[in-house]
Hints:
Chain B: InterPro entries: AA_ABC_transptr_permease_3TM, ArtM/GltK/GlnP/TcyL/YhdX-like, MetI-like, MetI-like_sf. Chain B: It comes from Celeribacter baekdonensis. The structure holds 2 protein chains of 2 kinds. By secondary structure, chain A is of the alpha/beta class. Chain A has one domain (2-89, 139-239): P-loop containing nucleotide triphosphate hydrolases (Rossmann fold). Chain A is 38% helix and 25% strand. Chain A is built from 9 helices and 10 strands. Chain A has helices at 40-47, 72-76, 94-104, 110-123, 139-151, 169-184, 196-202, 220-225, 230-239, and strands at 2-11, 14-24, 29-34, 55-60, 63-64, 79-82, 157-161, 188-192, 205-210, 213-218. Chain A has a 6-stranded mixed sheet, sandwiched between helices. Chain B is mainly alpha-helical. Chain B has one domain: MetI-like fold (Orthogonal Bundle), CATH 1.10.3720. Chain B has 8 helices and no strands. Chain B has helices at residues 10-46, 50-65, 68-81, 88-113, 117-125, 130-160, 172-183, 186-216. The A-B interface holds A 48, 50, 73-74, 76-77, 79-81, 83, 85, 87, 89-91, 100-101, 104-106, 146, 149-150, 153 and B 116, 118-119, 121-129, 132, 136-137, 140-141, 144.
Amino acid sequence: MIVLENLHKSFGPLEVLKGINLTVDNGEVVSLIGASGSGKSTLLYCINALETIDGGKVTVDGVEVHAKGTDINKLRQKLGTVFQQWNSFPHLTALENVALAPRVVSKFSRKDAQEIAAKQLKHVGLGDKLNHYPSQLSGGQQQRLAIARALAMEPTYMLFDEATSALDPELVGEVLDIMRLLASEGMTMIVVTHEMSFARDVSDRVAFFKKGVLAEIGAPEDVMNNPQDPDLQRFLSTIG
Amino acid sequence: MTDVFTTLQWSDLIFLLEGAWKTVQISVVSILLGTLLGMVFGWLMSLNNKLITFAVMAVLDVFRSVPLLIQLILFDSFVAIAGFPLPAFWSGTIVLIIYTASLVAVVVHSGIDSVPAGLRAAARCLGMSYWQEMRHVTTPVGLRTAFPSWLGVALATIKDSALVSAIGYVELLRASQILNTRTQESVKIMLLVGLIYFIISYPLSRLGARYEQRQKS
C-alpha cells in the first residue's frame, strides 16, 4: 500500500504539490490526469524519492520513504518506474539491459539474471530481440524494454510517468497494450497519462490534478463521464 | 690530431634506446597516475557543488594555463630551494602527472556530464546505489565520449615528456641532443628519434582505432 499524507513539495517559490492525500491499495490501478505542470509527475518522483519533499509523509508498505535511515535503494526495488523517455542503457543489449539490475542489485548470477531478463522480455513481446542493442529498436520497443527492465526486479508497484507521450502515434498502442496486460495481471500501478481512453478503460480510480491540488478522484465512469470540477469539465472537453 | 666530432656508432643507438626507455617510464607513470588523479578531480566537478567545483577549477586552471616548461623548471627549483631536492625523474614526472591530471579532469567531467540525467535516474530507480550506477552505467556510457579526448591527452603526455629534458633528465630528446652535439648528424638522429617516438605512441593510437571500430559495430 502506498500512502501519501498531506504531501507538500515546492520548487523554489513555486509550490507544485499543496497537501496531497492519496492511498493506493495493492492491486489497484490509479491514473493521474490533468494539465501539464499540475504536479502529477512530481508526485511520482516523491514516491520513489527522486525528489525530496517539503512537508507531509509518503509511506510504501509502512516504510516512510523520506525518513532518515530509510534504505532507499531497497525500497526502490519495490517501485518499478517507467519514464517518458525510455532511458535504455545504450551500451547493453536488450537482454543485458534487463539483466543488469538483477545481477548488480539482487546479486543473481549472470546466468540466472539473463534467464529472468529473457522471461520478462518475452512477457513484453520482445522475445525475438534479446541480442539487439537499443539503437536497433523502435521507440515503442525501447519503452517495452524499459517496462521489462523494471519488472525484472519483481516490483510490487509500477509507476508510469507519461510512458507514451514521447512516442510516435503509431507506437503508442503497443506500449498501452503491455500496460493493460500488467493491469490485468493484478499489478498495482500509478499511471500519469494523457491517454484518456486508457485511464477510462483500465483504471480503478482516476485522479484529476489542478495546480498542485488533487481536485477530484473517483471511479473512471464518475470522474470522466460526470465531472464535478469545472476545470475538469473543461480539461476533458479540450483533450477529447 | 683527432676529430672533434665522431661518427655514429652502435653504442649510440643503445644510448638512444636507454633514453627512449626513460621516456616510456615517464610517460607510463604520468599517464597512469595523471589519469587516476584526473578522474578524482573530474568526478569532484561532476558533483555540481559550486564550492568544490570552484576550488578544483581554480587549481586546475593554473596547471592548464602555465606552460609546462615553466612548471617543470619552477617546481624543480622550488623543491631544491625548499631543501627537498628530488631526482630529476621524479620532479619532472610529478609535474607531468599534475599537468596530465588537469587535462584529464576536464575530459572526465565532460564524459560524466554527457550521460543523460534520465539514464542515471532510471538506473537508480532499479535500486542501484550511487556507485553501482557509476560503475555500470555512467562509466561505460561516459567513456564513449571521453575516450577519444583522453587518448589525445595521453598521446600529448608522451610528447610533453620531452620537456623533462629541460631540468637535465636524459630521456629520449635529451639523449638525441647529446648525440647531435657530438656527431653533427642531426638529420639521421632526428629521423631515428622521431621513429622511436612514433613506435612508443603507436600502441596507444591503435588502441584508439580499435575502440572506435568497436563502437561502430
